[in-house]
Amino acid sequence: MSELSTSLGKINLQSPILNASGTFGTEYFNFFQQGILGAYVTKTITLKPKIGNPPPRLYETEAGLLNAIGLQNPGLKSFLNNDLFDLREYLKIPLIVSFSGATQEEFIRMLEGLELHCGIYGYEINISCPNVENEGIAFGTNPDIVFNLVEKLARLTDRELIVKLSPNVTDIALIAQAAEAGGATSISLINTLYGMAINWETGKSRLSIPVCGYSGIGIKPVALALTYQTARAVKIPVIAMGGIHSWQDALEFFYAGASAIAIGTANFSNPLTIPEVYQGLLNFLTQRNLNLKDIIGKVN
Fold first, then answer.
1. How far apart are alpha carbons 40 and 193 in whole angstroms?
2. Domain, as residue range, for 199
3. What pairs with residue 240 in β-bridges?
4. Of 53, 81, 139, 167, which sits with the fewest C-beta atoms within 10 Å of its C-beta?
C-alpha cells in the first residue's frame, strides 16, 4: 500500500486527489502525469444541451471567484457520441461522470443512458440545481427528496454513486445521511456558496446573474467545518473540496475526515496546483512514516 492510496465506496484510488467538476480540462495533463490524479471528474452534463448564462460570467473577488456559468454543456447525447469516446481512449485513470437534472425523471434518464456504456467507473450526482418539481428549490435542500432520488438511482447501477452536496442548507449532515440511506456509496462537498459582487460606481451587478456561485480560498473554513460535520455523520467516504490551494490545506481536510479531496478554482491561478499538492502530501507522510489512512478523521 502506497502512502497516498485511498478508496471511495467502490473505487480504489492510487492518489487521493481529484479534480473538481467543471474546473479541469484534459489539457492540464500537458503539465503533469495523469496518475497524480486518483480519478478524472467530467464537467457536469445535463439531459439537453445548455448554453449557459450570458456574459459576464466570471468575477475575481478579494478571496476567490464568482461564477455564473449556468452549467453550459453539450447535453447527454453529444457527450456519449463524442466526449465519452475520447475520454475512454485517453484516460489511464478512473473516469467519473458528473451529471444533473431538473426533475427526478431527468436524473433517471441520464443514468440509464450512461449505464449503457463501458469505461465509466462512477457518477457524481449534482443535486445543487433547481428542482422544477419543487418550485425551483434545489434537490439537495430536502432530505426526503434526496433520499427518494438517490434510492431510485442506486437501484440502476453497480458503479460508484457519489452525491454532491450543496453547502446552502441548514443541516448538511442530515442531507448526507439521507443520501447514504438512499444508497450513495460516497459523498462530495462542498459545492459553491452563494455570492455576489456589485460595481460600487454604477450600482450594477458585476455578473449577468446577480446571485451566483462563490468558490476559492475564501470558502475554505466553511468547507472544512462542513466536511468535519458530514464525515462524523455518515459511514461512507467523503470527498472534500472548497478553497484547497496547498498540500497543507489538503491535510486539514484529511484530518477533518475526508478520504479524498478535489481541487478546483486553484487550477485557474496555478495549473501546477495538483502536482504540488500531491508532492507535498507525499513528502509529509514519508517523513513521518505514515500512510494517508493513518490521519483521516484524526483531528484532535
1. 23
2. 6-294
3. 189, 261
4. 81
Active site residue 118: no
- pLDDT of 114-142, one tens digit each? 999 999 999 999 998 765 566 556 788 89
- List the CATH number of the domain containing 230: 3.20.20.70
Is residue 299 included in any domain, yes or no? no
CB-based contact 244:266 (threshold 8 Å): yes
- Determine, yes or no, domain membership for 144: yes
Choice among 8, 120, 129, 178 that is catalytic: 129
The DSSP symbol for 130 reads B
Cβ atoms 211, 194 nearer than 8 A: yes
pLDDT digits (tens, 9 = 90+) for 187-233: 999 999 999 999 999 999 999 999 999 999 999 999 999 999 999 99
Q: Categorise residue 241: left if φ over 0, alpha if ψ from -120 to 50, beta otherwise.
A: beta
Of 273, 290, 253, 246, nearest to 4 by C-alpha is 290
* Count of Cβ atoms closer than 10 Å to residue 124 Cβ: 25
SS (H, E, C) 19-74: ECCCCCCHHHHHCCCHHHCCEEECCCECCCCECCCCCCCEEEECCEEEECCCCCEC
Nearest Cα to Cα of residue 273 among 241, 295, 299:
241
Contact 5, 119 (CB under 8 A): no
Q: Which three cell numbers stand for residue 6?
A: 485511498
Residue 266, number of CB atoms within 10 A of its CB: 24
Domain count, the chain: 1
Cis amide prior to 56 (ω within 30 degrees):
yes
Picking from 161, 178, 298, the residue whose alpha carbon sits closest to that of residue 234 is 178
Cα–Cα distances in angstroms (integers) from residue 42 to residues 5, 94, 121, 197, 217, in the given order: 22, 11, 12, 28, 22
Output the nine-digit C-alpha cell for 40: 478524472
